[in-house]
Amino acid sequence: MTQTQAVAGPQGELLLRTMPLPADTSFNGDIFGGWIMAQMDLAGSMMAKEVTRTRTATVAVESMQFIKPVRVGDVVCCYGRVQRIGTTSVTIMLEVWVRPILHADKNQFTNFKVTEAAITYVALGEDGRKQPIRKSKADT
Fold this sequence. Notes:
Low-confidence stretches: 1-5
Number of helices: 2
Helix content: 10-25%
Number of domains: 1
CATH class: Alpha Beta
CATH superfamily: Hotdog Thioesterase
Mean pLDDT: 89
Order of helices and strands: HEHEEEE
Strand content: 25-35%
Shape: elongated
Radius of gyration: 17 Å
CATH topology: Thiol Ester Dehydrase, Chain A
Distance between the termini: 37 Å
């Protein structure tokens, strides 16, 4: 059993909840993977800003594997947790889960995992250059 199959539910804090629209579909009728990645980056950047308390920029995305397609009308939920805080960067582990309200059996909703990735953000100063992450007293 893979790590993805072993997890019973989302790991981390719910950061973003949205619904894709018909304009977000590929020629196959499924939601573009790039749209999913953009939602993950938005969700992760919000958490990164909370951690760094400054501007951030995305600098790396670890490998992603799309497990199941997402359809118009599905509720897309991005969950995240801090994986690592470095001197100038923070890595957020993100998962995308879907609740297929329109396409589910009417007697039960079955949430499923779509993808996961670790995204690294760097803290930026006013000049746009990387800067050390300020630690609060609660962090020490």
